[in-house]
Write a structure and sequence with these properties.
mainly alpha, 84 residues
């Protein structure tokens, strides 16, 4: 039996530092849809696009990108579905 080195936040599920980092990067695909990102307001103001309209149009592209990230990570075994 080997003991994995776990991060504090992933210790309950015994995820490695690498796995925690990869899953954090996968979640970044939705990051720019957040109203908390300041420069998005500047870009929307310059282009004259409404925030809600931009989010509605962008969510499909972002969801597709998210699914590609997940499929690649699961396909290469970077983030396992089950505990080893």
């Amino acid at each position: 039996m080997t003991i994995k080195k776990c991060t504090k936040s992933g210790a309950a599920y015994c995820f490695t530092h690498f796995q925690m980092g990869v899953t954090a990067l996968i979640g970044q695909s939705f990051h720019l849809l957040s109203p908390l990102v300041l420069f998005i307001y500047i870009l929307l103001r310059l282009t004259g696009v409404d925030m809600g309209h931009w989010q509605k149009k962008s969510v499909f592209c972002v969801a597709g990108l998210f699914l590609v990230y997940v499929a690649v990570n699961l396909g290469f075994g970077i983030v396992p579905l089950t505990e080893n």
